[in-house]
Amino acid sequence: MSQTVPSSPSSPSSPSSAAAIRLLLCDDHAVVRAGLRALLASTDGIEVVGEAGSGEEALAMATRLRPDVVLMDLQLGEGMDGVTATRRLVSGDPPAPRVLVLTMFDTDADITRAIEAGATGYLLKAERPEELFAAIRDAASGRTALSAPVADRVLARMRSPRPGLSERERDILRQLARGLGNREIARALFISEATVKTHLGRIYGKLGVETRAGAVAVATERRLLPDG
């Protein structure tokens, strides 16, 4: 259930009231949202204007509340995930909010999908409060904010990019996107199931994923799927 948080009254002479960053929380766990709201109340210059429990709620509330920054979890239960919500938030009518991902997941696939969707920053929930506050301020100013482990992974990938997919691997990805199993893919492409499994292992490695769904999701984000 989403919740709009009323603004706290402040003195007109308060130095933080005029420049307060308007923040919208999006996490499907009410306890997490409550903890974040209490934590953010301990610092000046950041005002939590609303809470959303799903991607759909975040979109609706962002339209109504016009936050400067949306603090976005990636896994939001059923419905729209955090990556899709991020893409739609940053591509909406201006002024679009900045999106700062706050998640427990630090896989290459998650990081890549979030950044390619338009996230300004990517933080892990294990960060210290001071790092979170600084990241929110950076995001509001349009500066990139990455947790140290995330930055290390991004740099490592830039230094050693994964090889591109072969034409056969793209063919198999297209069959995966159609929902076919290994046997059906083998029949469709006139190859053995063992060959399909070998190609799948290479595809997973190149895309930095561990599942069929993850491979399709990353391939879609990077526009790697062939037409048709």
From TrEMBL:
PTM-bearing positions, type 4-aspartylphosphate: D73
Keywords, in A-Z order: DNA-binding, Phosphoprotein, Transcription, Transcription regulation
InterPro entries in UniProt: CheY-like_superfamily, NreC/VraR/RcsB-like_REC, Sig_transdc_resp-reg_C-effctor, Sig_transdc_resp-reg_receiver, Tscrpt_reg_LuxR_C, WalR-like
SMART domains linked: HTH_LUXR, REC
Signal peptide: none
Entry-linked PANTHER family: TRANSCRIPTIONAL REGULATORY PROTEIN NARL-RELATED, TWO-COMPONENT RESPONSE REGULATOR
Name under which the protein is recorded: Response regulator transcription factor
Organism (species): Streptomyces javensis
